[in-house]
Design a protein that fits this description.
Layout (H helix, E strand, L loop, with lengths): L2 H12 L4 H10 L12 H10 L7 E8 L12 H11 L3 E2 L18 E7 L2 H10 L6 E9 L22 E7 L4 E2 L5 E7 L2 E7 L6 H5 L7 E11 L2 E13 L3 E5 L10 E3 L6 E3 L12 E5 L6 E3 L27
Parallel strand pairs: 8-10
Antiparallel strand pairs: 1-3, 1-4, 2-3, 5-7, 5-9, 6-7, 7-8, 9-10, 10-15, 11-14, 12-13
The site of zinc ion has 8 residues, from loops.
């Protein structure tokens, strides 16, 4: 495997790659290949060959359904999934969501019954021994994988370097108060020294939005996101947020009356303040900026597990990143 192929592989994970790029590589190495339908499958298949996963990696065990069951509801004992998660939570991940709902069974018509992801082959094999399928399993296999590694994210870029559909890491400053729209999606503006862009945390990200709603202008953050484009406007679809620095927040508070201690009120725009009780007014009566306590803390924040992409690195994997030792 030549180094170019590894570069190609990473390029497929981190950007849009056209079929002609894959064909060029196949022709260069004089590789035989078969295309199905529109033939775009060769883009990813070739990337998998070059994806030697020298940096971080995980394992996934997949069980397959009997062909006669394809397309029907998957029959797996749900309680056994929760029990497996309890027993193996230190070496497997994303088996169930925050409410205990199993996440290991896919929803589409594909032939996979369930898949378990974990740190090593034994972990996912042990998981299979605990999960009780209620239909026949045709076969199983374990793959070494880039899932749960954040492999799609590279070095930070500037807002004016964003490219549609290429995952992006951007360091910037929050530039608006987050706004929740109908449907529960939350948006805020992010700026850096090259521009301003909208960031979105969609409804399925769950409690992640509670963190996003606490952001205030001036907070320093690093966003990890997909990049979509609509009418020439980019949106960063957040998959992870690192809060680097929480800015102080101030509130304007009206002073008490120096004569009687009563509360004061505004007499209208630019008209100053007046005591509500005794009517006192004076130039010293001006609103004071008072710092509000921020409960938001710096750190790494992720969407709820059900909204993770396959490549999203879950909390429990931080500090467990592997490096493949190819020395013999
Ligand atoms: Zn007064």
């Amino acid at each position: 495997m030549c180094i170019r192929d590894r570069e190609y592989s990473l390029r497929v994970v981190r950007s849009l790659v056209e079929k002609k790029d894959a064909l060029a590589l196949l022709n260069k190495h004089d590789v035989d290949f078969i295309e199905y339908k529109n033939g775009r499958g060769i883009i990813g298949a070739l990337a998998a060959i070059g994806g030697t996963l020298d940096d971080d990696f995980t394992y996934e065990l997949l069980t397959y359904r009997m062909p006669e069951n394809w397309g029907t509801e998957r029959q797996v004992d749900q309680e056994s999934i929760r029990e497996m998660d309890n027993a193996l939570s230190d070496c497997t991940y994303n088996n169930v969501d925050e409410n205990g709902k199993p996440l290991i069974t896919p929803r589409g018509p594909d032939p996979v019954l369930y898949g378990v992801r974990g740190e090593n082959p034994k972990a996912v094999y042990d998981a299979m021994c605990m999960v009780k399928p209620l239909e026949e399993v045709e076969r199983w296999m374990i793959c070494r994988s880039n899932q749960g590694t954040d492999q799609h994210f590279s070095e930070p870029i500037k807002i004016n370097e964003l490219t549609p559909y290429n995952p992006a890491v951007v360091e910037g400053t929050v530039d608006s108060i987050p706004e929740t729209i109908e449907g529960g999606h939350v948006f805020f503006k992010l700026k850096d020294d090259t521009g301003v862009v909208t960031c979105a945390a969609y409804e399925p990200t769950g409690s992640f939005r509670d963190i996003i709603r606490q952001l205030r202008s001036g907070d320093k953050v690093t966003t990890y996101s997909g990049v979509s484009i609509h009418e020439d406007e980019y949106t960063l679809n957040l998959e992870k947020l690192v809060i680097n620095e929480v800015a102080p927040e101030y509130q304007l508070v009206k002073p008490k009356c120096p004569k009687c201690g009563g509360s004061t009120e505004s007499m209208g725009r630019g008209q100053g303040l007046r005591c509500k009780k005794c009517g006192y007014r004076g130039d010293e009566l001006i609103e004071q900026e008072v710092e509000i306590e921020r409960t938001l803390e710096s750190g790494i924040y992720l969407p709820d597990r059900g909204a993770h992409r396959h490549l999203t690195k879950p909390y429990e994997r931080y500090g467990r990143e592997k490096v493949l030792n190819l020395e013999v």
